[in-house]
Amino acid sequence: MTQQNVTATERLWTYDAVRVGQAGGPTQVTLSAADIAEYAACAQNPDPRYAMPPPGAAAPPMMAMPTMALTYAPLLRDEIAAANGFVAQERSATARRQTPFAKCEIRWYRPVYAGETLTGNRRVSRKYERRGSKFVTFRVSAFDAAGAVVASYDYTCIFEYAAGQRSVPDPAGDVPTAPDAGAVPDPAQFLTWEQAHAGAPLPRTLAVGETTENILRKNAHRLAGQPNPSNIHTDEAFARENIFGGAVNAGPATMSYVDRFLGLNFPPEALYNGGNLVMRAITPFRAGDVVTFSGAVTGAGGNLYGQRKAQCRIRGLNQRNELVSLSDATLTLG
Fold first, then answer.
1. Which class in CATH covers the domain with range 3-53+60-332?
2. Taking the domains of the chain in order of start, what are their residue ranges?
3. Which end of the chain, C or N, has fewer beta carbons within 10 A?
4. Where are the beta strands (DSSP E) in the chain?
5. What local confidence, expressed as pLDDT, does residue 334 receive?
C-alpha cells in the first residue's frame, strides 16, 4: 500500500473525532504479590509493606500502593480509539504524534490486595479548550469481584497544544541534589489530626531522582493492554518531535512518587478511606533530574460521616528550582 493510500484510509482519533461517551473494552487483572512489589520498585519505594515477603513466611495479603490503580485499571486510550473505529495518534503511520499527560485525579474507596481480581472500564468523559490548547479527559473505574468500585480516576491528555516546543535544559549548571533512596515511613512522624491546621508543613520531604533505566522499567510494567514500545518516554528521536523536545518520564510515574511522599507523612489508609489526589504536570521530569516533594496543610474539617479530613498541597521542585508538579490531596485522619 502506498503512503497516499495509507493516508486516505487511516481514520485518526483527533480532537475533532473524539466524542464524549466513546468507550473501550473492559480489562480484567488478578493482582499478584509480585505485581505489587514491581510497581513499588518502579516507584522507587522501599517501604517494606510493598516488598515481597521471605519464602515460606506467614504474612497477610500484600496491599497495593494507592496509585497502582493506574496500572491495574490502565487508561489504554489507543484501545478506546480502536474500539470506535479510529487509529490513535500515537499509533498513526501517517501523522504520528503524542497526546501527553496534563493532569489526573484519583479517588479511592478501599484498599486493594494481592489475589483480588479487578475489572477496569474506561470512556471519554469530557473535552475542552483552554488558552489555545485542546484537552480530553477520560474516566476510568476499577471494580472488585462483587462489582463495587474500589477506585476511579479522571485522566486528562493534551490532544492539541498551542505553546511551542519546550527546550531541553543543559544539565551542566545543575546544582547537585541527592535523592532519598532509602526513606521509609515512620509512624512516629505521621501528621496527626491535632497538627492538621492550615499552613502546617508536612513533617517530611522526599527527593526522587529519575533515570533512563527506571523510565524503561516503568514503561515495561504493564498488566493489561497492548504495549507501545515507542513513545515520548522511551524513544528520544520521536520525543524530540513533540512538545517536550526530548524524552520525559510518564505522568503516572510522577504520581507514584507523590504517593510515596504521602506515605512518609500519613498511613496509607488516609488515602484509601475515601481520599483523593489530583496532580498537574507543570515542567517535564527528565532522566537526570532530582525532584524534591514537600507539602503543607491547606485546610481541615469533618464531613457528614464523622470523618476528619485534611487537605494538603504538594509541590515538586527540580534541582533547577522549577515547579515540576503541583498536587492537592484530601486525606482521612480518623
1. alpha beta
2. 3-53+60-332
3. N
4. 27-30, 101-108, 117-130, 133-143, 149-160, 206-209, 276-281, 290-302, 308-318, 323-332
5. 76
